[in-house]
Amino acid sequence: MATSQNVQLFATLDQITPDDLRRTGGKAYNCARLKQAGFPVPDGIVIPADATDDDLLLLTSHPWLDQQPAGTRYAVRSSGLGEDSAGHSFAGIHETKLNVDRPRLIEAVVACRLSGASSHARAYRDARQVGEEAQIGVLVQRMVPAATSGVAFTINPITGGDEIVVNAARGLGEALVSGLIDPDEFHISKRDGAVLSSHPGSATQATIGTSTLSTTQLASLGALLTRIERHYGSPQDIEWCHDGHDFWIVQSRPVTTLPPQNAARQVNPEPRTQNHAPGTENPEPRTPNPEPRTQNPEPRTLNPDTEWTRANLAEVLPEQMSPQVLAVYEDMLNRGQRMFMGRLLAPDEELGPMFKAFHGRMYMNLSQMRRVCSLIGAPAADMLRSLGHPEEIHPDDERPRRAPLGELLRCLPDFIRLGSYDPRIETLLRRHEERTRRTLARITAADPRSMSDADIWKMVRWWVDIAPEAIQAVFLMSGVLFREVAIRKACKLAGFPYERLVYTHLAAGKRSVSTQQAIELVALASSARHEPRTLKYLNENDGTFADFRTALAGTSFLERFDRFLDLYGHRGRYESDWSLPRLHENPTPALFAIQQQLQERPQDLKAVAERQEADAAGAWRAFESRLTLWQRWTVAPRVRAMLKRLKNQYVWREQVRSDLTRILRYARAYHLTLAMRFVERGWLARPSDYFLLPLDEVGRAIDSPAHGAALREIAARTAAKLEEERRLTMPMLMRERDLPALLRAGRTEADSQGGLTGLCVSPGTVEAEVVVMRDPAEFALMKRGAILVAPATDPSWTPLFTIASGVIVEVGGMLSHASTIAREYGLPALANVKNATRILKTGDRIILDATGGRATRL
Fold first, then answer.
1. For residues 412 and 406, what is the distance between their CA atoms, to the nearest angstrom?
2. CA 413, 415, 417, 423 torsion: positive or negative?
3. How buried is 493 (Cβ within 10 angstroms: 0-12 exposed, 13-18 middle, 19+ buried)?
4. Fold category of 749-857 in CATH
5. Distance of CA 305 to the CA centre of its chain
6. What is the three-class DSSP state of 416?
7. Distance separating alpha carbons of residues 821 and 521, to the nearest angstrom
8. Based on C-alpha coordinates, what's the Rg of the chain?
9. Edge to edge, what strands does the sheet with 184-188 contain?
10. Where in the chain are all domains bearing CATH 3.50.30.10?
11. CA-CA distance, 158 to 255, in Å (whole number)?
12. Which of 372, 675, 691, 736 is within CB 3.0–4.6 Å of 579 for a Cys-Cys bond?
């Protein structure tokens, strides 16, 4: 119930006066000033910095909230005292909460107020000697459902040119103003609103295909921004959003860092209203893009010396991805990686993007990874070993290279941010799990077959938009290099083999979700042994299992098997590519693995686990015995803690990858629905052709059905290009400048005959026959007790690990799927064995000495 007390405590933007500045903070005051001058600012109320905790309890009964429509969401923004002032913007330092509902307003306000005491805020104040400005006012505004958001400068902050520079991206603008995504950039004339130049960002180029703002919208925005500049009398840094109909201003502050000739530039201001004092809204500026893009938006070779690798990608991505999926992943991974790493990555203009497709194959930027190694003081050799390129290590790679001090200082905010993740990693994992639950709830809320094309397309676009943020968990859990470097240094100090200490601890303890999938298969085989009908069917089947549901109807095995598919049915061959089927669509490989388990005595997995625990304990005792008494008190506890965290990260990495793949299982259903409809309309010849279409062409056909007739020709051209590229043998590692010559000569490292040596990723020795397989679809070739030899493996190979005695793969490193499963399952495994599938033949008998890093044909 509203009271006069809460009305007096919390003023609306229309009620704010200059006297309130010292209580409300600069951001809230500036918004009030603009709104009272007639500019489109979302309405709101302000919680002053001196409000007590008891005062906050009155917030949700304020009459202003009663005037808002039911279900209204709010943006809750910190407005620090001194923020957006002449010398201190506090940009990005204090908390902002978006899409907050009314019951959670007090919680969000408290979070904003507490952000004034955060480590980031303290460091900012200490550096600028403004320790008294920890008090936070809070602005609660009606949330604008932004279709597009952005930042604009009413002067070019780089050249000082008298033009408007606009950065724009779809959706909310938090990532854009933080410099974490690559936005569209427009330069607009103040004279007539004409677009002087436009440069599409990566999202527009690779995924959407249409500009974020039309020419008419840009002219309208330019006119609004020019009016705001005139109102203040100086160039402005403005944050804006567009709800699909109108533009809204959520922040404006003067640009104070300009080229010298423009530093004192003023414009003729509009008449000021009497209730505003000039000069109270001066922040530090932010450039619209921390790393200015080149003027040429066309793809090109940015640095011919850039090194590229696909060693870590080859196990999770097919040799040739669906062109549709490849384009989305290239954009998604680049945006996500830039969001995660920030300034630790060099600008694209210097070293290129973190991910890039060459002739239909995805590569990672090894030059960018070398740069990160130099920033953290790690030798590049450790990174090369982890990726599976030990043969490329040179003596210089073993020595850490330190980046220049200026570069380190420039990256300091990102070091602080990334460093803050590590102590909170379990909390961040829980957030990822909650995000996954919410995403699954939304994407499974309706059957796409009952939805319109437009609604399906809206869901697809929504997932594409959130994917870069969702993938942050994978990057976080994969960040093990600095911890591995520290453990390696400790082992060197003690004179103890790093592999013996680390591999045994990674094998012991909690199982990853992928290994648990294999254990569940073994358990299913055990249950089948106790059901005569199931046992008879599985033993006598020819390996096709086409009628398994009819034949096993009513058995407890089938009930358990369906539970298994509920848990792991989203896994599949190259499961990151949503154009390919999942295990729940074709469970034959799992049934084959169970059938093979029935041929011999069941594995004693408990004994395997006990042996692994004993091996880890023995390795620790041996390591500790090499330490001095002082080192046992100082070094040993740190190493033990790092080993525990390293093990957890390997397990968590498999979990978050599995979670994201589970979402793809349901996203695939949306695409399949569109594929069937496009075939029914005659737009495509077959459903598989849908995955040859770029997503922007799909959206264009949905928005304008007349375009559907053009899809057959687009798919045909793409198929022809795909077939042409399929014949290419692409290198695993290359310099960009060398690729044309390699392709012309038909030479890659795959053409050289190398020895059977590789990287030990799971120790042990075994003598057995080998089975060479290039695809998990060849599962029927596998023999129980054989050594599996493959180009690479992903989770779809897991059933075969349950019947193998060892594993050899041509690519991969410590982080690869084959490594994780083999270690936890107790299988000797070698990775990075060049040409293994060409040198070895099915039926060859070999000794696999994984500990020694070699395989010998008998």
1. 10
2. negative
3. middle
4. Glucose Oxidase; domain 1 (3.50.30)
5. 26
6. helix
7. 14
8. 30
9. 195-199, 184-188, 164-170, 148-153, 236-242, 247-254
10. 749-857
11. 12
12. 691
Is residue 394 within 8 A of residue 370, CB to CB? The reply is no
Report residue 265: phi and psi, to 5°: -65, 135
Q: DSSP for 490-552, please give it.
A: HHHHHT--HHHHHHHHHHSSSPPHHHHHHHHHHHHHHHHTT-HHHHHHHHH--S--TTHHHHT
CA proximity to 326, closest of 206, 430, 465: 206
pLDDT digits (tens, 9 = 90+) for 179-221: 445 678 889 988 878 888 887 765 555 444 567 888 888 988 9
Q: Which residues contact 325 (CB under 8 A, 6 or more apart)?
A: 576, 577, 578, 579, 691
Determine the topology of domain 4-142 in CATH: Dna Ligase; domain 1 (3.30.1490)
Residue 858's contacts (CB-CB under 8 Å, 6 or more residues apart) are 767, 844, 845, 846, 847
pLDDT of residue 584: 92
Instruction: Express each pLDDT in 441-477 by its tens digit.
Output: 999 999 999 999 999 999 999 999 999 988 999 889 9
136 burial class (0-12, 13-18, 19+ CB within 10 angstroms)?
buried
- Cβ within 8 Å of residue 429, ≥6 positions away: 473, 477, 652, 655, 656
Which residues have CB under 8 Å from 268's CB, separation 6+? 230, 233
pLDDT band at 296 (very low <50, low <70, confident <90, very high): very low
Kindly list the distances between the CA atom of residue 827 and the CA atoms of 156, 783, 786, 793, 803, in Å, as whole numbers in the listed order: 61, 15, 11, 14, 10
CA 230 from centroid of its chain's CA atoms: 41
Backbone angles phi, psi at 330, to 5 degrees: -60, -45
Q: Mean pLDDT across the stretch 542-552?
A: 90
> Rounded to whole angstroms, how far apart are CA atoms 803 and 786?
8
Give Cβ neighbours of residue 327 (< 8 Å, ≥ 6 apart).
206, 207, 357, 694, 695
For 470, how many CA atoms within 13 A lie in the half-sphere containing its CB? 25
CA 592 – CA 498 distance, rounded (Å):
38
pLDDT score at 416: 92
- Express each pLDDT in 662-698 by its tens digit: 999 999 999 999 999 999 999 999 999 999 999 999 9
β-sheet bridge partners, residue 829: 762, 807
Beta bridge partners of 187: 165, 197
pLDDT over 90 (residue 329): yes
SS3 247: strand
Q: Which of 237, 159, 230 is nearest to 196 (CA)?
A: 159
Residues of the chain within CATH 3.30.1490.20 domain(s) are 4-142
Sign of the torsion angle spanned by Cα atoms 560, 562, 566, 568: positive
Q: State which fold the 148-262 domain adopts.
A: D-amino Acid Aminotransferase; Chain A, domain 1 (3.30.470)
d(CA 23, CA 83): 12
CA pair distance 724, 728, nearest whole angstrom:
8
- Angle, in degrees to the nearest 10, between helices 532-540 and 513-528: 110
Label residue 369 by pLDDT band (50, 70, 90).
very high
CB 212 within 8 A of CB 170: yes
The token pair at 668 is 């695939």
**What distance in Å separates the CA atoms of residue 634 and residue 631, rounded to the nearest whole number?**
5
25 class by beta-carbon count within 10 Å (0-12 exposed, 13-18 middle, 19+ buried): buried
Helices and strands counted in the chain (H then E): 34, 22
